[in-house]
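Quick one: structure for this chain?
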Amino acid sequence: MDIPEVTAYFIGRDSTNFLIVSILGFSHDFSFLPPDFADYLSDDGKKKIQIDQYKINSLKVRQYVIETPIAVNYKLFCLTSINTLQLDFILGKESNEETVHSVESSIGSLKYVNGNPRTE
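Got it. Here's what it folds into:
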């Protein structure tokens, strides 16, 4: 598996919520993720992990939701025609329901736009 190149990160006002955007190499499917990737994420076997795969606006996504005693990480791998994006939404356990809904809404509205940048 390629090592992700962090290209952007965002920190919430209270410094307990984060978004990390990384780029991985190109892949036309999720075969670059080893079959035991969830086991790797739960290195101590105590983390609760949910795995899902779906499409959002024709963008193929594999999502791992990792719950620890102090945080929840929505780890998404998104396949594009150029590369694979990794998005990590990390929320402190004390995050309120509104924050969780905002993250889930953001994930649901992902869209990959392939084309020339607009110049105005």
